[in-house]
Design brief:
The structure holds three protein chains of three kinds. Chain A has nine helices and 18 strands. Chain A is an alpha/beta fold. The longest helix of chain B has 17 residues. Chain B is globular, with a radius of gyration of 21 Å. Chain C is mainly β. Chain C starts with a strand and ends with a strand. Classes of the chains: A alpha/beta, B alpha/beta, C mainly beta. Chains in contact: A-B, A-C, B-C. At the B-C interface, strand 8 and helix 3 of B face helix 1 and strand 4 of C. Strand 16 of chain A pairs antiparallel with strand 22 of chain B.
Chain lengths: ~375, ~425, ~80
């Protein structure tokens, strides 16, 4: 391949890499994209495609909120295969304790301009008739949506290419060097900047990154239109995402535009790339069946696993890599990669192009100090 | 726990069950049809009075230690040596000491314009539907595709009152003539062929011909055929079209068995690469009834530890393999069949993915992720083989459930009380 | 001879036939409609293609070629 020099090479064409490539290319940089397998084929394909605002911390809220506004703009131009569905989220409270959490969330969102509505137990049943009886209520966040991420990634890459980016696929990067990246065939892609967006595999190229793969299980059913209308998540999900080390499951179900139901979620720190673990899948399904009594009768078509890239403080790494001046990181998004992909791209470009970011970037900088993994 | 668990009660599974049981094993035979017999002997003893089938049905009945479980294997745990079996309103876990996979084959469908119209079915497919009560009297049927099954199915249709308009075999006259000459080495098969020839007298049998299009208003009304030179149409109510068979390898792949080409690799004792798992019949490679039976016997004997008896069957197996090779050569698919689709022709029927959206992809996985092809309930069983033929894509990765299963069945995994 | 209902119409069918046969006997050719609205009917006859799905007694996605009729069944094409 002829030697060419780019302004930036983006390693990894998952949704984060794709968003970054599109942003940089649109801003006039010459961009190369290296994808080792399939565009949007990693965690992007495995995850739920839930576009949400999260209130785990101010920093997480700021990032998800900013990104959600960008998603709203993007949704107007997305093709049908991106399956964008503005169905909203209902956070479900099973008891009084969780209902208190509903109210806290409501206050948090209200104070920050996120439209939300508290549902009592009757209103919850009206909103979602197939939930079991006896739940305390919930919080409806109407501005949340869902999408099918591999097709969004594909769309963003196509846009990047329209803006002059070059996609190298399949192209596996084996080494990041000062002048760019080296591929498996020994060839070099020369570039001033390297953007690493390979998710859980990021440590293959930079071993000391504070990232651990966190495996999740998912299952999709046949088509049952209108059985579930919103993305439904139990408030216990937050405890699951909180728990740093233990295996956990939480009820999380999504209606797809096709009418199929996507069921999650589970979290395990897995050392190897293992397939579906029957016991974990069963636990996850059992939890889901506790909320949707009809679930056991539904037909399951497929189950699979994916690996989230988890950092110790549950915030992604967006910015220059410590000790490697030509490398920028755009990884470590755990369960919010799809949601925050667009904001990640903006904040990354802000730093590369020396633009003023819309939100403070300090919390996401890779140079921040981490509490070690417990 | 059973000594020997056999998945599939077609000829290979029946033969394996009988031989294992005769040699002292306790056998569990799992099948998802209401009666044993698989596809070729569908309907069991009531519907298959020919001597070969009856011999095996009677043997099954006479063996005391064969129990038959009606259900479909949806998942498996290799370490725990357990299968999850789903039946009509139940689910069970079956444990094995030795497992024999006799999962058989399905028909290979190749897309062409209009193939999704109601009325277009498989060859074995339409026959199976008819055997379960689909009315055929006075229906006009075109039988097309490839393989000896075309003749057997046409014979069945005619005997049940249908008007078989034509049989269109894509293999050329030249290839079939060579195969026919080869049949002189197998008197039994030659006799079968001659019997069919007589009973099908009067039905046009066109070689080197195939369907290019199906048309109709909401359901099939006519097909267009070609022999490469001229094209003609046939008005019909049903088209029975399929291009041979494709092995059912999903369960074996889930269990970690190595594949050879598109089938499960086995040694001369029918052992797969996975310990204590054997495979027999069409799943080891399409080879016809005779080969399925002898492989089933070998697997059953091997599972029971009777290797000397298994060894005595090797020469018969080799003879059947030679016949299977001749079958394969005679009915090899012509290249024109790969280019029948138009841009809008649906290839993935579950998700309505058209040909034009697929030929841009460079792999099965990429096509799946970007178009959702293969993500429907058939789990790629129909479109996967078609795309393998059309584009050479490999699609061997498999995840549980290997067949759509009730979520309730997947919850049973944790329930130790239902062990068989 | 079991009596079943196909799309609301009562029909007497032979013993031991499948729901697919009953639908055909009722004169219906479209068992279901695909995700883009195409009419579809049985293809494989052996339960793997899922084109023959109908709703039986309110339960959707039942493969009619694999289900034997029972008296009183309410069968609906979709």
């Amino acid at each position: 391949m002829p030697s060419r020099s780019f302004d930036a090479v983006v390693v990894g064409a998952g949704i984060v890499g794709a968003a970054c490539a599109e942003e940089l290319a649109r801003c006039g940089l010459s961009v190369a994209i290296c994808e080792s397998a399939i565009v949007g084929g990693g965690a992007t394909a495995a995850g739920m495609g839930h576009l949400t605002v999260m209130d785990d911390s101010e920093e997480q809220f700021a990032l998800t909120r900013y990104s959600q506004l960008l998603w709203r703009n993007l949704s107007n131009e997305l093709p049908p295969d991106a399956e964008f569905l503005p169905c909203g989220t209902v956070w479900i409270a099973a008891d009084a304790e969780e209902m208190a959490e509903v109210h806290r969330k409501y206050e948090f969102y209200a104070a920050r301009g996120v439209c939300a509505e508290v549902l009592d137990s009757r209103q919850l049943v009206e909103a979602e008739p197939n939930l079991r009886a006896g739940l305390a209520g919930g919080l409806l966040v109407a501005g949340d949506s869902v999408c099918y991420p591999p097709c969004v990634a594909h769309y963003l890459i196509a846009k990047a290419v329209q803006h002059g980016a070059l996609l190298f696929q399949p192209a596996r990067v084996t080494e990041i060097i000062v002048s760019g990246v080296r591929l498996t065939d020994g060839s070099l892609i020369e570039s001033k900047i390297v953007v690493l967006a390979t998710g859980a595999a990021a440590r293959e190229l930079i071993p000391d990154l504070p990232i651990r793969p966190r495996q999740g299980h998912l299952l999709i059913t046949d088509r049952y239109p209108a059985l579930v209308r919103h993305q439904l998540i139990e408030l216990g999900y937050l405890k699951s995402a909180h728990a740093v080390d233990s295996d956990s499951v939480a009820f999380n179900i999504q209606p797809r535009a096709t009418g199929q139901l996507l069921i999650g979620s589970s979290r395990q720190f897995a050392s190897d790339d293992i397939g579906v673990e029957p016991s974990m899948l069963t636990q996850m399904l059992q939890r889901a069946a506790e909320y949707i009594p009809r679930l056991p009768q539904l037909s399951a078509i497929r189950a699979w696993t994916g690996h989230r890239a988890a950092t110790p403080d549950k915030l992604p790494l967006i910015g220059p890599c410590v000790n490697r001046p030509n490398v920028y990181l755009a990884t470590g998004h755990e369960g919010l990669g799809i949601s925050t992909s667009l904001a990640t791209a903006r904040l990354l470009a802000d730093q590369i192009l020396d633009r003023k970011p819309e939100i403070p970037i300090k919390p996401y900088l890779p140079q921040r100090s981490f509490v070690h993994y417990a | 726990m059973s000594d020997v668990v056999i998945v599939g009660a077609g000829p290979a599974g029946l033969a394996a069950a009988v031989r294992s049981a005769e040699n002292g094993c306790k056998v569990t035979l799992i099948d998802d049809n209401p009666r044993v017999g698989g596809q070729i002997w569908r309907g069991g003893a009531a519907a298959n009075k020919n001597s070969a089938a009856m011999r095996w049905f009677n043997s099954i009945r006479s063996q005391k230690n064969i129990s038959i479980l009606n259900g479909r294997v949806v998942s498996a745990d290799t370490e725990a040596r357990q299968l999850t079996v789903e039946s009509l309103d139940n689910a069970a876990t079956v444990s094995w000491r030795v497992l024999i996979l006799a999962t058989g084959a399905r028909e290979l469908f190749l897309p062409f314009p209009g193939w999704t119209l109601p009325g277009v079915a498989g060859v074995g497919g339409l026959q199976a539907l008819a055997k379960s009560g689909l009315p055929l009297t006075n229906k006009r049927i075109v039988v097309a595709g490839s393989g000896p099954l075309l003749l057997a199915a046409a014979d069945y249709f005619r005997k049940h009152g249908a008007k078989v308009r034509m049989i269109a075999e894509q293999a050329s006259r030249w290839r079939l003539a060579r195969f026919g000459v080869g049949l002189f080495r197998c008197p039994e098969k030659l006799l079968q062929a001659l019997q069919l020839r007589t009973s099908l007298h009067g039905i046009p049998y066109r070689t080197g011909s195939w369907i290019t299009r199906a048309e109709g208003n909401g359901s099939l009304q006519r097909v267009s055929l070609t022999d490469g030179r001229r094209t003609w149409t046939e008005e019909c109510d049903y088209a029975a079209v399929a291009y041979g068979l494709w092995p059912n390898t999903e369960l074996a792949t889930l269990l970690g068995c190595r594949m050879a080409a598109k089938a499960i690799a086995v040694d001369k004792h029918c052992r797969t690469s996975a310990p204590d798992i054997l495979c027999a019949g069409e799943a080891t490679g399409i080879g016809g009834l005779g080969l399925s039976l002898v492989e089933g016997e070998i697997a059953g004997l091997t599972a029971a530890g009777n290797l000397s008896a298994a060894n005595r069957l090797h020469s018969r197996r080799r003879a059947e393999e030679r016949f299977a090779d001749r079958l394969k050569r005679a009915f090899a698919l012509r290249p024109e069949l790969k280019t029948l689709s138009e841009a809008a022709t649906i290839v993935c029927r579950c998700e309505d993915v058209s040909f034009q959206r697929l030929h841009r992809s460079s792999s099965w996985r990429e096509a799946k992720l970007h178009t959702r092809c293969g993500m429907g309930p058939c789990q790629g069983r129909v479109c996967g083989p078609a795309l393998s033929v059309l584009f050479g894509w490999d699609f061997s990765s498999v995840r549980p459930p290997i067949f759509p299963a009730r979520i309730g069945t997947l919850l049973e995994n944790q329930n130790p009380g239902k062990r068989e | 001879m079991p009596e079943v209902f196909v799309n609301g119409a009562q029909l007497c069918v032979p013993d031991e036939v499948t729901v697919a046969a009953a639908v055909a006997l009722a004169g219906e050719t479209a068992f279901r409609h695909s995700v883009t609205g195409e009419p579809r009917g049985p293809l494989c006859g052996m339960g793997i293609c899922f084109e023959c799905r109908v709703t039986i007694d309110g339960v959707p996605h039942a493969r009619s070629c694999q289900t034997l009729v029972q008296s009183g069944m309410d069968i609906r094409t979709t």
